[in-house]
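Following up on my earlier thread - several people asked me to post the actual chain instead of describing it. Fair enough. Here it is, all 777 residues.
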Amino acid sequence: MINLTNNTVATISDCDEEPIHIPGSIQPHGYLIGVNPANGRICYGSENLEKLFSLPLQHILGQSIKDFFPQESSEIETYFQEKSSFQNKRFLVTHSYQTFQLIAHQSGNVRILEIEPIADILPETYSIQLTDLLSLIQSPGNLTELCQTVANYVRQTLGFDRSMIYRFDQEDFTGEVLAESRLETLESFLGLRYPASDIPPQARELYLKNPLRAIDDTAYEPVAIYGLPAAWDDAPAQLDLSHAQLRSVSPIHVQYLKNMGVGASFSISIIKDHRLWGLIACHHSSAKHLTLKQRDSAQLLGFLLSSQIDLHERNQAVREVEIVDKSLNHLIPFFTQEAIRVRDIITNPELLRIAQAQGVAILIDGQIFTNGNVPATESIKELTNFLLEHTGYEPFFSKNIATLFPPAEAYAHLASGIMYQPLGYLSEDCILWFRPGLSQTITWAGRPTAADQLLEARQKLSPRKSFEAWQEVVKNTSSAWAAVHVEATTYFASVFQKQLRLLHLQQDADKQRALNERMQAATEELENIHWISMHDLKEPLRKIQVLASRVLSQETQTLTDTLVDSINRMQNSAQRMQKLLDDISAYSYISTGHEPSSVINSNSLLSEIIQEKQEEFTAAGATIHMDNLPGINGIPFQIRQLFLNLLTNSFKFRKPDTDLHVAIWASEPSEEVAKELGAIEGSYYSIFIQDNGIGFEKDYRDIIFRLFKRLNTETSGTGIGLAICRKVMMNHQGYIWVNSEPNEGSQFELIFPLSRIIDFGSTPLHSTHGTQKDPDY
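Reply from S.P.:
Thanks for posting it. Predicted structure:
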């Protein structure tokens, strides 16, 4: 046999770590058996079973549970055949002419059976009656009065020296005695606050799992539990007794009760919304045992009080909601107006009332609007910056912001409590409500941070001994923010945010409308300028050119050489201006892509252009190599202008004393272009035009596509040709790209969307990206 008594608690330096759910022992007023549900054999047992069954424990372990309760064997067998897990399954069993109450529950893969003798029948005065419970439900008054009524009733019916209603703070889990009924000879604990360490987290967790906790005698000697080694394959090494009523209590807690002069205790959990709201705690100066009936009725009372507390808090919440709704109803109409006037909203007293605050600030577009008691503007800005980083644009509230943001200590008298509601993501816009820090006097049951207790806790695991009332003054902590105020401010902020968004959209629409009007006016003005340039300016230019030609042809012999030279330069300037007007006219004609598209045979179109320019290309010793190209679904005259400009560009910027070579082919976009455009593979197709001309630096490859930009002023031109090419590609939802090096030639890439490319059958896709043609082939 293995003794399961958990002796590790003596070495633990922090009671928060004490494994109180696996003590390995029970209280002595009952017996415990652990059964393998697969075969009904006893594999765990409390040491005092030897007294009950008059057998050594080693002879009990390993036997069938039915052997010890033959009269109830059928009922027990039925229970073990059930596959469902049961909590608090009960039987009456007999052994040696004595009746016992057997309470069974599932713990992991073990069935735990607790056995208690049936006690003598107690007087009705020591039992909670259903009629009394009904009268408690109907008792009027507030929550404190209800708790006091229950405390009085519990002490009267269960016969304890003291009964208390103990409430946990849901933020820091300190406890407060809210109501108390006691013998007059006892010191009062009413109103005392207890540190959270008195009931550590694992103890609170057990109160949630098992709502009853009875200690019949704080002077009891724990009864060890023994188990068979490796009883079955997955048998637990320790028994989880979280749901066991006989579970042995932490020696720390027992000593704690003894230090208070308590001989027996009984606790009933008050559970609300699946959280431990508090306890009905009973103390007695001597040992005291409650029957199962008394414990059941007490548990029913705990359920009743929980429901009544919930009802009282809901009623209080409803009253607060009504008040807040009334304030919201006065605020929301401000958002139905055509324009939001923040100053009207910030000065409305209802804005403070929805949060029960004493100050409020609204931050919009860098401006701060305030009302009531608020920190300085710079302090609000610093606090807002901290909250943006700390909360990630999520709502936030605190009773003491200085604990997170120490600079707030300087204005804690105005704004210790803050409610933060952002008005959008990636924006500083927000609303802040402020509550002042209050000075509160808290009466503790003993000094919670006394140095001697801390030293003793470090040396060994020991509960505190002092319970004398000790007062602490807590400053710079505001009243807690109620859920109704959090919900109301969240709702108000959401409505405000929507209206701000609508306002911004309206402002953007107004700006867009004004911009469109200005653009329309500019467009009309440009059309007038275009008309003037295309018609009114061309006529004087033609007259200048005609007159200059006439003078040169008829009066040359009578003019001086200087005057003839001036007239020639005047005529050349007029011709350049004529060329510029023609190019501007060409650019304006392709400024939109609304003209109808048709299928263009790229091979035929380029052949026509080459034929037209044959004399110029032949004079330059030009050789043009053209692969079979795909068709293009485009605007014919624009595509023609595109190819013409690029071929003319190659001719214009050829190397002197070097024959011009031009290569034209089609392929998938080059890797560089695909990466730059983020193009999905297979969504574009390119036509390449490469020459062996003078080239240019890569830094200029964006500049050359701008209007009137020329890199080489020694050649003729207006700087519009490549701008036209880019405009044509834009009109066809495509792009133009160029790679070039000085003296290495240029490669222009026309990237068309795949939807614009026709007849791939005659133009197979190349397997390589941007095939580089040799310019000296």
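The longest strand covers residues 98-107. That should answer part of your original question.
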